[in-house]
Amino acid sequence: MTQLSALQRSEAELFPHEATGLEAASTRRSLQTPGSIRFFDYRPTPADVRAEVLDGLGRPAKCLSPKLFYDQRGSQLFDAITELPEYYPTRTEIRILREYGSEMADLLGRDNVLIELGSGSSLKIQTLLAALQPSVYMPVDISKEHLLESAHALAERFPNLSIRAACADYSAPFRLPLEPDWTDLAAFFPGSSIGNFDPDQARLLLGRVASLLGPGGRLLIGVDLPKDPAILNAAYDDAQGVTAAFNLNLLSRINRELEADFDLDAFSHRAFFNTERSRVEMHLVSRIEQQVEVAGVRFGFRAGETIHTENSYKYGIDAFHRLAEDAGFVAEQVWTDNQGLFSVHCLRVLDACSMS
Q1: CATH number for 21
Q2: Rounded to an integer, what distance in angstroms lies between the CA atom of residue 180 and that of residue 116?
Q3: Which domain covers residue 350, as residue numbers?
Q4: What is the pLDDT of residue 354?
Q5: Which domain of life is it from (predicted)?
Q6: Total count of domains within the chain
Q7: Do the domain assignments include residue 71?
Q8: Taking all residues of the chain, what is their mean pLDDT, rounded to a whole number?
Q9: What is the reported pLDDT for 352?
Q10: Is residue 68 part of a domain?
Q11: Residue 153, φ and ψ in degrees, nearest 5
Q12: What is the dihedral of CA 275, 277, 279, 284, to 10 degrees?
């Protein structure tokens, strides 16, 4: 928990050093929804998506951001992935949250404003809400439809909970709809989503979260641990092909939103653990030599050429704590499952004296 300065504006900046001019470029849209939910729309504009896709496909090593996975269909497919027998992270993290939720609440604090980054279906937070009893819950997710569905489901289950849902790309500058009298902030970042960022990007993101929370603020974060590559490869390339459909759906989205002509049958899903970099990589592989048009721009693909769509870094406990310390946090507690598959960490923002 942390005290907000009286001078802090009602819309606190998650990325204070990069948000200059943001509101001039993108007006905040607030939607009053029934009951205890308020919705704030900070989604990237179609022009932003177009620019990012064209930039990624125009690079020598083609790549697309994993945040593009999460249109409505992509979010549904990811929910299906979390229920697959091969995909251990979700069920393992939930098991840890259920077993140690009371301890986590003691550290994180109760009756505060709880911000969840990458809330998705809000499945995991449901295991903690009874223990945490926040005054306000603020889920942040890039998929508008999924976010609204989850917020309404939570409101039905927790009718006294005040929910402020923010549809946003939390990896880019945006402002959170905070009130000046909200004095206690805490954050929840589950699912090992921090692993989707390269270490330098992860350090920067954690530093921005630390700036938002302020000295003494706490972050509860899920981190996937290194393990047998066979377990990892199966988790990201399941036998039923759901992860493959999830990966290929990215091309369907680009076809729909950017008037592209990707032939999904001409690409295949590939996932593997890169031992040297301690990360799982996901790619879309061109089966043939081909040309694809996206938003009026043509791109050539060689047979076997890939679009790199996702990384998922795996951190040992000590390695992650070093990363967190570089971002201005100190580790207070860590919980793991008995198989050593996954970890959940409580981090506290260092005060100014400790950081100097």
Answers
A1: 3.40.50.150
A2: 19
A3: 12-46+83-227+315-355
A4: 52
A5: Bacteria
A6: 1
A7: no
A8: 88
A9: 63
A10: no
A11: -65, -40
A12: -90
DSSP 68-110: GG-SHHHHHHHHHHTTSTT-HHHHHHHHHHHHHHHHHHHHH-S
Note whether 77 and 148 are within 8 A (CB).
no
Q: What is the pTM (predicted TM-score) of this model? A: 0.88
Chain segment 302-332, per-residue pLDDT in tens = 999 999 999 999 999 999 999 999 999 999 9
- CB neighbourhood size of 161 (10 A): 19
Q: Alpha-carbon distance 106 to 41, whole Å? A: 32
Q: What is the pLDDT of residues 6-19, one digit of tens each?
A: 333 334 445 433 33
The residue count for the chain: 356
Residue 103 forms part of a structural domain: yes
Residues 6+ apart with CB under 8 A from 93: 124, 190, 191, 192, 222, 342, 344
> Is 269 a member of any domain?
no
Task: Give the separation between CA 155 and CA 38, rounded to whole angstroms.
Answer: 11
